[in-house]
Amino acid sequence: MKTVHKLILKSYLGPMFLTFFIVMFVLLMQFMWRYIDELVGKGLDVHVILELMFYASATLIPMGLPLATLLAAIMTMGNLGENNELLALKSAGISLPRIIRPLAIVIFFISIASFFVANNLVPYSTKKIFALIYDIRQQRQTIEFKDGIFFNGIDNMSIRVANQDPRTHKLEEVLIYDTRKTNGDMTTTVADSGYISLSDDKKFLLVTLYNGETYEETRSGDWYEKSGLRHHIFDLQDWVIPLEGFDMTRTDESMFNSNKTKNIGELTQDIDSLQNLVDDAVRELNNQFLSNSLFVNNKEMAVDTLPKTDRKPLDMSDSIAGLNEARRAEVVKNALNMATGAKSYLNFDEETTKQNVNNLYKYQIEWHRMLSLPVSIMIFFLIGAPLGAIIRKGGLGTPIVVSVAFFIVYYIITIFGQKMAGEGTWSAFAGMWLSTFILFPIAAFLTYKATNDSSLLNGDWYRHLFRSVKEKVQKFVRVHKKRA
Fold it and tell me: Of 305, 339, 366, at which residue does a domain stop?
C-alpha cells in the first residue's frame, strides 16, 4: 500500500500546485484589472506594484484554494481512471476510500493551514492593501503634456506646449500661467523651448526655459486700484517649484481597521461589544418609547418596572364610548398626534442603532467565513475525487469545465447566503454555511456512487435507461388501448 499511496500522492501534488498557481494568476489579473485606472499614469515604482500584487495574492488564497483542490482532485482521479490504473487498483481489492485516504489526509492538513492563512495572513494583507490603495489614490498623476492641450495637474498653474519630442522630451512653444502668489497676481511666461520634469524625489518641479518673455501683473493695493504690468525678456530661466502630492506617502495602517482586517479573536471581541451595544440601545429605545411617547402621564409603565404578566393591551373602548361626540373627537385627535410623535421618535432612535446592527452582521459573517473555509476545501475534495473517478477523463478539458461549474454554484450560493445574512433575514450561521449544507450531500452521493462503480455520467447507461422507460410507456399505452 505504501507504493500505491506514493503513486496517488505524486499524481495529485503536481496538478494541485499547477492548478493553484493558474487559479491564483487568473484571480490576481482580475484584481489588478479592477484597479488598473488608478495605477496607470501615477509613475509608481515597480516595488509598489509588486507589493500590491503580493498582498493581493495573499487575500485571494481563500478563494483560489477550494477551486484548485477541486480541479486537482478531478484531474488526478480522472487520469487514473483514463489510464485504467484506478480499475487495476479496484481489481486488486482496494476500495475507492482506501485509494483516496492519503489524499484526504493531505487535504485535511491543507484545510487546517488554510484557517491560519485566513485568520492571520489575510487580515494583515487586507489592511496593507487598503492603505496602499488609499496612498495610490492620493498620489497625483505624473507630468504628462499633450500637444496643444493645457496641463492643469499642478495647483495654481496651467502649462501648454505646442509639441514635445518623444525621445529628448524637449518642449516647443511653452506657455505657462502662474497664479501661485497669495495676492492674486498672475505671471504669464512664453518661451520658444524648454524642459519641464519632476525631481527624483517628486517633491520639486524643475523648469528650464529658453528664449522667452515674462509678463507679471501687479497691483499696488486693493482690487479696485489700477494694476501694473512688468515685462522681462530672458535667454535662459530656471525654476525650482515645491510640489505636494506627487511623491508616494504612506498612511498609518491603523486607520483602516474593519471586519476584513481582524482575526477571529478580535472579531469575537468586537461581536460581543456590538451585541451589547445593540441590546442596550434596543432596551433603552423601548423604555423611552413607552415612557416618553405612549405613557407620558404614567411613568411607572416603563418596561423595566412593568411585569411581563401585566403587559397587556389596554381596552379603552368602554371609556371612549361614555364620552360625548366632541370630547371623543378630541381624544382621538390627541391619540393620533401622540402616535405620530411616537413614530417619529422611534424612527429617529432606530437610525442611531442601525449602524451598530449592520456592523454586527458584517463581523458575524466574517467570523463564520473563516471557519467555513477549511470545511469547504474538504467538501470540494470529496466532490472532486469521486467525480474524477466517475468521469474518467484527465487533462485540463473536462475537469476545468466540471470544476468551474461546481465552483460557480458554490460562489452563487455563498453570495446569496451572505446577502441574506447581511440584511438580517437569516442568521450569519445559516447564511455562511448554506453552501456547505447543500454541497455536502452532493459530495456524499458522489462518493457513494463512485465507490459502487456507478454509471452516473455514462451516456450509454442513460440511453439504455431511456429506451427501457420508453418501451414500458409504449407497452402501458397499448394495454390501455386494447382495454378501451
Answer: 366
- Residue with C-alpha cell 484557517? 115
SS3 sequence, 329-384?
Answer: HHHHHHHHHHHHHHHHHHHHHHHHHHHHHHHHHHHHHHHHHHHHHHHHHHHHHHHH
**By residue range, what is the domain housing residue 172?**
157-242
Clarify whether residues 458 and 447 are in a common domain: no
Whether residue 126 is contained in a domain is answered as yes
Whole-angstrom distance, CA of residue 474 vs CA of residue 480:
10
Looking at residue 351, its pLDDT comes to: 64
Of 58-62, 96-100, 289-293, 385-389, where does mean pLDDT reach its minimum? 289-293
| pTM of the predicted structure, to 2 decimals | 0.69
Query: Has residue 149 been placed in a domain?
Result: no
**Considering its fold, how many domains does the chain have in total?**
4
250 occurs within a structural domain: no
Residue 110, C-alpha cell as written in the block? 491543507
The Cα–Cα gap between 287 and 370 comes to 38
What does the mean pLDDT of the chain come to? 80
HSE, side-chain direction, 13 A CA sphere, residue 60: 22
- Would you place residue 450 in the very low, low, confident or very high pLDDT band (cuts 50, 70, 90)? confident
Burial class of residue 166 in the structure, from the number of CB atoms within 10 Å of its CB (0-12 exposed, 13-18 middle, 19+ buried):
exposed
